[in-house]
Specification:
Beta-Lactamase; 8 helices; elongated
């Protein structure tokens, strides 16, 4: 398999959403799965489906969250890769396996997405045929693919966070300018006003600044 081509496709996307969608589609194609999806881990430990090549993936993910156990959730927690040969006979995660077997999913490959900074989520591949994914070849290749995908995803997340931070600073600067003109105060005093309102109203500083920038008024 041409990893150079895969890397160009993975790193050629613009934004987190486009990147996770490409990860799912490339994984489905390269590992010859029927369906693929990416679940992302958010702060607070919540997970959600960020990309799915078919609606059945979202249904399978929803069922995993509902029962609170499954190969994806365990892969994220245990830094592992899991293969389910047949959901009909799999003894692990039986509540979830029973539900996805009813959806027509018979075999599963779940691989953790992570970097040195921590887990990002999980890549899941599904097939309607039992024993579609091998423990050696498919699991090994899936792990290698997930490593490259994790780097691409982490890069886009960092870029997104930097853009948000820059946008936040811009909004705060506008709000400071409005307050400086209205109350004849300097930049540091204007920032102190924003920070005090943020604390007193239990609002994020950026939210206070956005209110000032868009309405010209401090929050009530």
């Amino acid at each position: 398999m041409d990893f150079g081509h895969l890397l160009r496709e993975l790193h050629g996307q613009d934004g987190v959403e486009a990147t996770v969608e490409m990860i799912a589609e490339l994984a489905r194609r390269e590992l010859e799965a029927d369906y693929a999806g990416v679940m992302l881990l958010h702060r607070g430990g919540t997970v959600e489906t960020a990309a799915a090549t078919d609606p059945v993936v979202e249904r399978a993910d929803t069922e995993q969250i509902a029962v609170g156990e499954g190969p994806c959730l365990e892969a994220i927690a245990k830094e592992a890769v899991f293969v389910i040969g047949d959901t009909v006979t799999e003894p692990r995660w039986s509540p979830w396996c029973e539900r996805v077997a009813a959806l027509g999913i018979r075999s599963v490959l779940s691989v953790r997405l992570f970097t040195a900074r921590g887990p990002l989520g999980c890549l899941n591949l599904y097939s309607g045929r039992p024993h579609r994914f091998s423990h050696d070849g498919d699991a090994a290749y899936g792990t290698l693919f997930a490593g490259h995908a994790s780097v691409a995803l982490a890069t886009e997340k960092t870029k997104s966070e930097l853009r948000d931070a820059m946008d936040g600073r811009h909004v705060i600067g506008i709000a400071q300018g409005i307050l400086m003109e209205r109350f004849t105060i300097d930049k540091d005093q204007a920032f102190s006003v924003l920070r005090r309102y943020s604390q007193d109203h239990n609002m994020k500083l950026r939210a206070v600044a956005t209110t000032v920038a868009t309405t010209g008024q401090l929050p009530d």
